[in-house]
């Protein structure tokens, strides 16, 4: 079932396959009412997406997905309803981009040693001049070589933690990410909480830390998520008195992952779009 609100997706300004214009057109075609573009450590797609949405019934929500580190685990924090021109946010984006460029070069060097000639240059060519190069971009390049059955297979073999081309990166803290999102007028959302490799007890510690840092919501419903995981996250929203968000984390077409798909929020969860920060966007 397709819902009308999707608050987590990516364009080719980071590691998505579609341009901002294409993803907005896709959302309009599906009849969505609200779409947040949350590219990795950049808000570069927002203005273009708003132009494309003009004259339609779709409202584009300003968003971002910020990489952080918590207890040596990479954690993604989504910022919604924020001011994309806020100077502290823009300064953070510059810092994160430099770090991503350094990591991309190191990954490219490792892949070169593994026989993938000009891996960084080819990945950049596929991604485009404005893209922030992520591991997802490298996975798309590796898949294009024809050596892997799926993009996930390429990612798991070479790019995930423990993979042959993995580069460990110390991102900013959860506290700093939440602080800058709040300073930008936005709401901090813990992205896809059940995707992290951690026990439920460690996940609860993360959520407690996230809330203390200023986080207000959990991404409760996402594509390719089991009903059991959704219900567990809904119970955590109740336990910690947090709001719930929904997001497909759409990057490109794939089985059971598309804009608005399987994003129903359980009735007992308070929607993140009922917060005051969301009211300027027609909810």
UniProtKB/TrEMBL annotation:
Signal peptide: none
Domain Polymerase/histidinol phosphatase N-terminal: 5-70
Molecular function via GO: 5'-3' DNA exonuclease activity; 5'-3' RNA exonuclease activity
Entry-linked InterPro entries: PHP_dom, PHP_domain, Pol/His_phosphatase_N, Pol/histidinol_Pase-like
Superkingdom of source: Bacteria
SUPFAM superfamilies attached to this UniProt entry: PHP domain-like
UniProt-recorded name of the protein: Error-prone DNA polymerase
Lineage of the organism: Bacteria, Pseudomonadati, Pseudomonadota, Gammaproteobacteria, Aeromonadales
